[in-house]
Amino acid sequence: MSRRTRIGDLLKRPTPGGTVTVCGWVRSLRASGDVAFISINDGSNLDGMQLVLERDRLPSFDDFCTIGTGAALRASGELVTSPAAGQQYELQVQELSVVGQADSAYPLQKKRHSFEYLRSIAHLRPRTNTFGAVFRLRSRLAQAVHRFFDERGFLYVHTPIITASDCEGAGELFRVTTLPPNSAPRNEGGEIDFTRDFFARKTGLTVSGQLEGELFAQAFGDIYTFGPTFRAENSNTPRHAAEFWMIEPEMAFADLADDADLAEEFVRYLCNFALQECAEELTFFDRHIEKGLLARVHAVAKASFARMSYDEAIRHLEQAPVSFQFPVQWGLDLQKEHERYLTEEVVRGPLFVLNYPKEIKAFYMRQNGDGATVAAMDLLVPKVGEIIGGSQREERLDQLERRMQELGIAQEPLWWYLDSRRWGSCPHAGFGLGFERLVMYLSGMDNIRDVIPFPRTPRHAEF
RNA sequence: UCCCCAGUAGCUCAGUCGGUAGAGCGGGUGACUGUUAAUCACCAUGUCCGUGGUUCGAGUCCGCGCUGGGGAGCCA
Length: 463
What we know:
Layout: H1 7-10, E1 19-32, E2 35-41, E3 49-54, H2 61-64, E4 72-81, E5 89-100, H3 115-120, H4 129-151, E6 155-156, E7 162-163, E8 175-176, E9 203-205, H5 210-220, E10 222-230, E11 243-252, H6 256-277, H7 279-288, H8 293-302, E12 306-309, H9 310-318, H10 336-346, E13 351-357, E14 373-381, E15 385-392, H11 397-407, H12 415-419, E16 428-434, H13 435-443
The protein binds one RNA strand through strand 1, strand 2, strand 3, helix 3 and strand 11.
């Protein structure tokens, strides 16, 4: 096959002219007497290319007028300036072939579909404008994440996907086993004998790469992970999926303030990246998905992020002139309505809340001198609330062991984690960012199932 | 997992007081020399989510179930 030219590249040409070949899928066909127009899209950009077919220049003109929406085409012709509004260039077709026909049963019509319906045809929805834009943005953002950390000398570490540590309290584990489901070997107590399983222990899919990430941070200084993460929680919300991608940087010789600095720089970098490198997509989202998206992302890109302690946050909420559905009290976690009030009404921009009560945070977070709080941070942003959660880690062995004991967390399976506090332990800090939540934030899409190619949620693993 | 809402043509939805089902879009056919989700004319399409019940009669009322969506919890 002679090589095609991507439509996105053609549209970047400063001048028309020349014979080119494009391939793509039909979005719309408009036939009118002796001339027909076919809009095709090849996924390389939003707008696609208009093919112009003329009866006296093209044999089989009438046959081409019956091409169905969704068909795959290969077209060669001259790239010309379009005389009509709506597109800069169009293709005067000299040769056209139908690579793959599509009949009238093609589920994508030339009209708006609901996102719920498109989820039921997830194999075809990437051919729509919205999902084309979402997944181009997602791809570029993934590259931007690596670029950000690489530019700053962070080591990219692949932490294991199969893990035996399920004691982080980060959610239910998916079991990984090769034992036969109906005749698994039992021990004397009648329980399944996992010592005879593939790994000779109970294993599952990772819920976080953080603990392993900490070990690498204590060898390479600054590291990050970016990989798939699994939670078997029966969560049915627009913000949760059973399989998602998480970004977790970890820095040695760093405290909570350093952690917040990194998070702030990271979020600002990604906003600027999207505005510059995905302008076409963001403009589309601003117009069709969330009015005001561009202004919101611009604001975050320029803002200096506010910081306040959990104590201060509670005081602000107690003095709020609005009434909340959920109680405000020192010691309780912030609800989404509280988070949104703080970031949207109190500071009107991104906000770090620092130093939460230890009771509502994980065992590995560093205990503060007040005996009541830990060095945790959440980054709250307008519209979505929490987008990043992080902490300085407890590097003092005795403190860590005492906290695990208080919480009833077995130390033996985490002997390797505790060892890192035994030899050359140092202050270190990191955070976690759900990649999909970032994509949602920068696209205005409000359901996580619509920013994952083939989302896994309770009862859904069809595609 | 809990609470709320919904399920009718390919899609989005209307359907009054319980009386035997409709619109727009999409699709098909035809017309039209430059369209932009083209336009105009004509044509076709139903397991009213399933199941049990109330009733002379159920898309409509009631029970149970399934599916989807939203909110909460959990969290990223």
